[in-house]
Amino acid sequence: MNKRKDEAELKKDAYYFPHFSNARGDRKLKRVVKELGVEGYGIYFMLLEVLRDQSDFTFPMEDIDLLADEFNTSEQKVKIVICNYELFTVDDYMFFSIKFNEFMQPYLSMKEQRRKAGIKSGEIRALMAKTPEEEKRDSPQVYIIRCFNEKEEFIKIGATKGTISKRYSGHLPYDYEVLRQIFTNEQHALEKELHGLFFDYKLKPNIKFSGDAECYNVCILTEVVNYNPDVRFSHERVFKQCLNENEQSKVKESKVKEKKQTSSFVLPLLTEVKAYCKERNNNIDSETFIDFYSSKGWMIGKNKMKDWKAAVRTWEKSSTNSSGRSPKLKIGTLSEDTTYEGY
To answer: What is the pTM of this model?
Structure first.
C-alpha cells in the first residue's frame, strides 16, 4: 500500500514545471518554429520535460540518440534545438537550462520546507500519542503546549483550573499545539516543580503575553512531554538536544571550513563570484551560478569541479548574445531581451 502511495506521489511530482502561455512569442522559439516547424517547438518542451525528470536537471549529450528515438524524430534535430538557438547550455558533455533551474528553485525550496515541517509534525504526533487526549476536560491540570508562528517556536508550561482553550481564548498571540495534559488537584505544585527543573532553558518570546515568563527552548520537548516524577531528570540529555538544535549548524560550518582548507578545490563565496564576473564585465547572475552548482554538489557531469572560474567563463560564452541567426551547433542560453520570462 505504501509503495503504491509513493509511486503515486512520484508521478504527481513529475508532472510539474512552469510552462508560460506566451512562450511561443519568444524570439528564439520563433526561429525554432521557422526553421524546424512545430516539430522543433515540441522537441524543445519535450527536452524540458526530460530535464525536469532528472534529479539535477541535466542530461548527458551522449544519450541524445535515445531521446531522438523516444521523441520519434532524428538525432540531428534534437541536437540542433539544444545547440543552435541559445535555449540550453552545454557544460562538459551535459546540457541544461539556466532559466529553467531558476524557475524551479522556489518550488524546490517550498517542497523542502514542507518535508521538514512534515517530519517535525510527525515527531510531535508520536509524542502526543503517548498521552490521553483530554483537551476538553474542564478540570485542574498542568498543560504543556508548543507555541509557534512563522518566526519562532517555544514550549509553554502552565496550570489552569479549566480547559486550555478557555485559558487562552483571544489572549495568546501565537498558534499552539497541545503536547500533554496532567490532570491533578495539585496542579500549582507540579507546575512549580517543572519550572524548577527546566529553569536553565527559559526563553523570552519576541511577543509579550500573560504567561510569557513560563516559556522554554524547544529542546526540552522530549523530556517535558515524557516527564515522570519517579524517573530522574537528565540535564545531560536536554543539553545534547539543545546542542543538536542550536549548535549543530555551527559545528557543521566548522567542519566544512576545515574541509575547504584541506581540499584542492575551494568553494567560491558569492562575493568572489560577483567580483570575478564584474572583473570580466559579463552578465552572469552570480547567485544563480552558486545555486546551480551547489545543487549539483559542485560536480560537472560525473567529475568534481576543479576550477570555478573556468565554469564562469563557460557560462559567459553561453550567455553572450549573437547578432542575427546563431551558427550551427553554437552553445547558448537565454538573454535578457526575450519577450517573456521563459527558460
So the answer is: 0.36
